[in-house]
Design a protein that fits this description.
It contains 13 helices and 3 strands, in the order E-H-H-E-E-H-H-H-H-H-H-H-H-H-H-H. By secondary structure, it is mainly α. The longest helix is centred in the middle third of the chain and has 32 residues. The two termini are about 25 Å apart. It comes from Streptomyces edwardsiae.
Amino acid sequence: MSYTVGRVAGFAGVTVRTLHHYDDIGLLTPSERSHAGHRRYNDADLDRLQQILFYRELGFPLDEVAVLLDDPDADPRAHLRRQHELLTARIEKLRKMAAAVENAMEARTMGINLTPEEKFEVFGDKDPEQYAEEAEERWGGTEAYAESQRRAATYTKEDWKRVQAEVDDWQERYTALIAAGGQPAGEAAMDLAEEHRRHIGTWYFEVPYEMHRCFGEMYVADERFKAYYDSMRPGLAEHLRDAILANAERHTS
């Protein structure tokens, strides 16, 4: 059995453009062509694509992936064992990083020299110190937390009002997008996901796409974050997660 490039893209969660690129550089050349010259992928091609995506997710450059997969002495089972070990370690590390930076951002109390009245004025009914102690106890030693502290210590009340205004504006536009039937993989949703990533990078710490993917998964898996986003509109947490994944794919493929 063979599959069209569109079906393979759907199976793998990548874009057709990505598969074309892999073919162009010789990383994944489909085994067959239709009479019209269209790409057709067989099961062996899908196995290779799975290996490519594993290694890419682990941060290997595509040229190194090609070398690894084309090694005639490589045992496919050894590939899988190695990838499983690397992925397990990466998942645990990123899970901790994502929780650390998100909790640090939610705390919003590092270096904020505001009176109680000013905090209420800036953050409304949200308590900026709600998760501060937990965040510092669990993640105070991370670089992301330290960077967030350094930046936050320089912000004035007007800076925090700008932060909150940007958040409110983004929320309004995202809920309107969902109300209008916008899909997570659509340009508008991906643009808002990118805006979300850049907002964190502007005010708190840099967020690579791989880390942003972890944030998206956490927005659904962590009840507190899911409740926060779903309070804007039911289903928004999962919609945002999918938009973040699609946006990351768009920028890293």
